[in-house]
Amino acid sequence: PLNLLVSLKNYPKGYFLVLYEINYFYLILLRPLAYPDKK
Fold this sequence. Notes:
The chain crosses the membrane at residues 15-34. The chain is an all-alpha fold.
């Protein structure tokens, strides 16, 4: 989204929040795939 890029330029802290959210979703989505026997 364009407004997301604009907000990242205006608020550098938002960049870290986005990275945190991306890492969080990757943890939720990819960890069950990496460890199918664990939930």
